[in-house]
Amino acid sequence: MLEDRTSAASAASWPAAYPQGYAVVDVETTGLARDDRIVSAAVYRLDARGEVEDHWYTTVNPERDPGPVWIHGLTSEALEGAPLFRDIAEEFAARLDGRVLVAHNAVFDWSMIAREYARAEREAPVRQRLCTIALSKELGLPLANHKLASLAAHFGVVQQRAHHALDDARVLAEAFRPSLHAAARDGVRLPLLECRPLTEWADGSAPRIGRQSGGGGYGGYGPGSWRPSRKRPACPYPNPGRYEPGRPLKQGMRIAFSGDTSVDRELLEDRAVDAGLHVATSLSRLTSLLVTNDPDSGTSKAVKARQFGTPVVDEAAFGQLLLDVEPAEGA
């Protein structure tokens, strides 16, 4: 059945607006926080129709403890002789250059890659990404959940080493090809999002809250304790309502962020909190303002902003608004 569907898509006329090449990427990391590092990376380069051109894999010395070894299997000893990210940055970039980055939960892989390039004082040559979770939703695939294993099983792809970057990238490449052909056959618009390289960022400024067990011998990481949690004190000011274009922001306004920013997201959020604003993790009718560089994207926050009529500004405009925030009533 899969072969018949793929052949039918190949015979059909290919959408002219589709990208000319893809880089299917997987990175394994020391954790999920902004100061975590990549420990391995893999890239499968695909042509315009999803055919594999070549693949590449490397381990990376994270210059710190390797984090959840029980997940990615890379110990400090295994990574000791691995190259630093700055040593593989050029080759990695060559694999990405001019292609759409494809990943499962692509916002995570891209954010880790963008931070590594920022540390190396370089930019990754990526301008668009495609999340296979989003593509699966666009195609309406009957998946029990959005795990890579479920996507692989749907297309009959056998996974050999889960959480090994090279095998995860292979599995995703094999599952992406029939997804791409199904999208082409049905005239589905690919859910492409812009990738913005970081121009301002800060390492280690996000404190890790919660239990950090000493078990496992990996610098305080243990199963169940490695995921970071970042909490801020509650905003002390009441919400004065929506932002009115042309007027200043006011302390207590609820601000939501969506999509890539040139300034590291948590750094941008910290500045909003310091100005007396309430940083919201979701968007509702009470949200005063959405900050996004891509207001026409299909992210849930952008969609809700359009539904609710929530005011929207881009990152640059928000930066200017932060320079003059009105104090709350009685403050």
Structure, briefly:
This protein is of the alpha/beta class. Helix content is 32%, strand content 16%. The protein has helices at residues 2-11, 69-72, 76-79, 85-96, 106-119, 132-139, 148-154, 165-186, 265-274, 300-308, 315-321; strands at 21-29, 38-47, 52-59, 100-103, 128-131, 192-194, 254-258, 278-280, 289-292, 312-313.
Can you tell me about this structure?
The longest helix has 22 residues, at 165-186. This protein has 11 helices and 10 strands. The protein has a 6-stranded mixed beta sheet with strand order 3-2-1-4-5-6, sandwiched between helices. It has a 4-stranded parallel beta sheet with strand order 8-7-9-10, with helices on both faces. It has 331 residues and is α/β, with parallel strands linked by helices. Helix 6 (132-139) packs parallel to helix 8 (165-186). Helix content is 32%, strand content 16%.
